Automatic annotation (TrEMBL):
Keyword set, alphabetical order: Metal-binding, Transferase, Zinc
A GO term for molecular function: 3-keto-5-aminohexanoate cleavage activity
Organism listed in the record: Kribbella kalugense
The protein, known as: Uncharacterized protein (DUF849 family)
Pfam families the UniProt entry points to: BKACE
Cofactor(s) required, per the database record: Zn(2+)
Length: 274
């Protein structure tokens, strides 16, 4: 039976710990979260880290310690964010690969991001992509808009396949400024993906989480869930632990006759370094 890759994105860079104490911001909290989410059905973790004051950081020492700790305590594929926070400079975002993750996010273009702008100019995208090839890190292409899908065609045409030969994308939907979190937008984006794409997932921000997950499963895709993207299970029902979102995703995937895949199966799917 086919199965579903569930990625958990537990923290992100946008939510303040003071507003959401359940957000995992310390290394201990992140490791505990990773373990519970693996048990609930996650196979990959998309990581943003925080500093001692719970602020977003791309500090290389902390990133390296995080990769080590998650590897020591779980079998999850470790994906580090190269998006960071909207304020992070390009050189710090490139330096993330020095922490030697299995995978990293790679956003395919600039996008309005609420009241901010998430900057991903083409020269930065191509530099980061070539660095992933050189360092043998499997990229996950983050697509916030249909224009990002077109940019992925352009990137693969010009620079060839990623390390490992698989092309895995994640549709990030419902960001104010990006494509909407609707089934129509999902189908349009998936139908426009390059033929080289071997797997894709989708995530819906905020209240679009559930419609996007249902549309993704219906269209044969995989799921990303977590408090980076969604802080409530339903109106008035805050998420108290990331595992709740993973459990819900696992339930939906099982109902769709595509139960969660194990981290080992996910390693085969993405062909990350073993
Ligand atoms: N925090 C956003 C500015 C990624 O992780 O690569 C970027 C983001 C995408 O979350
Ligand atoms: Zn992220």
């Amino acid at each position: 039976m086919a199965s579903t890759l569930i990625t958990v994105a537990p923290t992100g860079a946008e939510t303040a710990k003071a507003d959401w104490p359940a957000l995992p911001t310390t290394l201990d909290e992140l490791v505990e979260t990773a373990k519970r989410c693996e048990s609930a059905g996650a196979a990959m973790i998309h990581i943003h880290i925080r500093d001692g004051e719970h602020q977003p950081t791309l500090d290389l020492g902390r990133l390296t310690d995080t990769v080590t700790a998650v590897r020591e305590n779980t079998g999850l594929i470790v994906q580090l964010s190269t998006g960071g926070a909207v304020t992070d400079p390009y050189d710090h975002r490139l330096r993330v690969l020095d922490a030697v993750p299995d995978s990293c996010s790679l956003t395919m273009g600039t996008v309005n991001f609420g009241d901010d702008v998430f900057m991903n100019p083409w020269p930065f995208v191509t530099q980061l992509y070539q660095l992933t090839q050189e360092r043998e890190v499997v990229p996950e292409f983050e697509l916030f808009d249909l224009g990002h899908v077109a940019a992925l065609h352009r990137l693969l045409d010009k620079y060839g396949l990623p390390y490992g030969g698989r092309v895995h994308c994640d549709l990030v939907m419902g960001v104010p400024g990006g494509m909407p979190g609707t089934a129509d937008a999902l189908v349009a984006a998936v139908n426009a993906l390059p033929d080289a794409v071997t797997s894709w997932s989708a995530t819906g921000i905020g209240r679009t989480a559930l419609p996007v997950a249902l549309a993704a499963l219906s269209k044969g895709g995989n799921l990303r869930v977590g408090m980076e993207d969604t802080l409530t299970l339903a109106k008035g029902q805050p998420v108290t632990h990331n595992a709740e979102l993973v459990e819900r995703a696992a339930t939906l995937a099982t109902l769709a006759q595509r139960p969660p895949m194990s981290p080992d199966e996910a390693r085969d799917l993405l062909n990350v370094k073993r």
